[in-house]
Amino acid sequence: MLDLTRVIAGPVATRTLASYGADVLRIESPRLPDDPGGLLETGSGKRHVVIDLAAPEGRRTVEDLLAEADVVVQGYRLGALDAFGLDPGSLAARHPHLVVVRLCAWGGAGPWRERRGFDSLVQAATGIAGIYGSAAEPGVLPAQALDHATGYLAAAVVMGALARQRAEGGGWRGELSLAQTAHWLLDAGSPEPPHQEEPDGPQEPAAGGADPAAYLVELEATGGRVSVIGPPGSPPWTAGAQLPPDTEPVWRAR
Predict the structure, then answer these.
(1) What is the pLDDT at residue 141?
(2) Chain-centre distance of CA 105, in angstroms?
């Protein structure tokens, strides 16, 4: 699986698939480096390499990888990868065996389709910030829920496409966006909070947050062992993020 994603949503999708055993190779641009600390969290189970897509040698390396890949997951602004021949249409023409799943902020139609966007911006644009805010200021969900939800949906789309490909053959394509996920959440409505009787007399302050120990896994990663939150609902990774210079742009033996 070739991972062309950044920040949260796309990396969540590919690290989920890595937990199921996918050989995930993530490409990072030398002009747009990620925070190494963040990669240790979002890159569990994956190998990361730096390839310059603007250089002929870099494009040749990617073409060699695509020839043997099964899946490409993309998480950039629409149009950002087109100049390198990595848009879904061009990929299908050159590598018709691929499953290509793409996610972005605003979706594939409309005047904002090629705009950059992040979870908090999409929450503001779709009205979530108003629901969770006040008359004085906008609010926000208590987590980057659009990023994570869209990432898990993208992982499900990849697995569904691979299952259909096994049964029907051909190449397959999926499209997701944070804005679509936001509208699905808004359309689902908010459940009514359970009725609670008012307690009598003064109450003790609530205990601290839940102990995270039960959710942590220890992994060997570039630079040493790391503790990360294990993947929900899927097997734990066997290794942490493998970062340059410990990696090479080649697939593992099948």
Answers:
(1) 87
(2) 12
| 3-class secondary-structure state, position 212 | helix
What's the CATH fold of domain 2-187+215-229? Rossmann fold (3.40.50)
- Cβ neighbours, 10 Å, residue 5: 25
Pick the closest to residue 243 from 16, 32, 8, 35 (CA basis): 35
HSE of 16, CA atoms in CB hemisphere, 13 A: 22
Question: Which two three-digit tokens encode residue 118?
Answer: 């992040």
- End-to-end CA distance of the chain, in Å? 12
Per-domain residue ranges of the chain: 2-187+215-229
**Residue 212 confidence (pLDDT):** 84
pLDDT digits (tens, 9 = 90+) for 194-208: 554 555 555 555 556
State the DSSP code for 82: G
Q: What is the DSSP letter of 76?
A: S
**Spatial separation of the C-alpha atoms in residues 69 and 254, rounded to whole Å:** 11
Mean pLDDT of 189-194: 63
Helices 145-168 and 119-126: crossing angle, nearest 10°? 100
Taking CB atoms within 8 Å and a gap of at least 24, the contacts of 164-170 are: 165/99, 170/96
Q: CA nearest 17: which of 91, 72, 76?
A: 72
All residues at 6 or more sequence positions from 239 whose CB lies less than 8 Å from its CB, including other chains: 44, 45, 219, 220, 221
Provide DSSP, 109-171: SSTTTTS---HHHHHHHHTHHHHSS-SSS----SS-HHHHHHHHHHHHHHHHHHHHHHHH-S-
Distance of alpha carbon 36 from alpha carbon 194, whole angstroms: 42
For 84-123, b/e burial (b = at least 16 CB within 10 A) is ebbbbeebbeebeebbbbbbbbbbeeeeebeeebebbbbb
Average pLDDT, the chain: 91
